[in-house]
Design a protein that fits this description.
Elements (H helix, E strand, L loop, with lengths): L2 H20 L6 H8 L6 H15 L5 E10 L22 E2 L2 H13 L4 E6 L6 H16 L5 E5 L5 H10 L3 E3 L18 H13 L3 E3 L2 E3 L5 H14 L3 E6 L16 H14 L4 E4 L3 H5 L4 H5 L5 E3 L11 H10 L12
Parallel strand pairs: 1-3, 1-10, 3-4, 4-5, 5-6, 7-8, 8-9, 9-10
Antiparallel strand pairs: 1-2
Helix pairs in contact: 1-3, 2-8, 2-9, 3-9, 4-5, 5-6, 8-9
Amino acid sequence: MTAAAQRTDDTLLDAAREQVLERGEGLREDQVLRALRVGDERLPDLLALAHAVRMRWCGPEVEVEGIVSLKTGGCPEDCHFCSQSGRFPTPVRSAWLDIPGLVEAARQTAATGATEFCIVAAVRGPDARLLSQVRDGIAAIRAAGIEIQIACSLGMLTQAQVDELVGMGVHRYNHNLETARSHFPAVVTTHTWAERWETLRMVRDAGMEVCCGGIIGMGETVEQRAEFAGQLAELDPHEVPLNFLIPQPGTPYETYPVVAGRDALRTVAAFRLAMPRTMLRFAGGRELTLGDLGAEQGMLGGINAIIVGNYLTNLGRPAQQDLNMLAELKMPIKALSDTL
């Protein structure tokens, strides 16, 4: 690292301590870009600062979530990263999970200590059949006495569908923007970034918690990663899941390189500094991209939520392995809300 580069990093870290750690004001887009360019020598300092910000503005608790696919494969959209798109020759085939299977998945998720269970479907948006399945599934989970909050991820919604989900007692809705607005047309052509944003606006206005993140490593520039962080900060979601691309066979991104571990950690820290009060969740691809660096460095670099188990069509680590990690780090699991 040159002396000039070191001075640049020092200036950013000093500004971030005063702005983010002391005042709780997120980094601007230009500052996020500088954080994403911090040299390897100062990366430990960046991670330590992001962890301090997380502890001050979010506290030590970690929210644990499990996810399950109610409807897998056969999606009509062309999201270039997704093995569930019916437009690409991937190994994934269309399938539905029955209600008993959904209940059992919720029971197993709750048994890990998770407080959130997300029902996911690979669709552009839900039709009447899917909403009926979701309604019946939530009712069956409640009838079984399983104490866990229900989230959903069902694609783009109409206002009537938003209202239906609120009536079912859905706690949180996930709908990822996936990437920066400027990069989105290179990732998806069958719908727009603005359509996704409109669903998120309706969800927020209806009183559900908003979960919105994306995938790092889809050919975006470092400037576009900073842009994405700024756009998420503007949305101010309750939760931001950070995924790292897992190149899927048969998709347009099957030969894309895996994000380097240190770049993944820079991204985690930079996004935390952009959104000091947001729940920042480790999601898909962390095992692949971090490798020997380990998830622990991310947990000590700004992360305060985690998905345990598998990620829809991709295998994750055994849930107990992540729970053991949290115990070793002395990070308590967030308690279930009293208002289910």
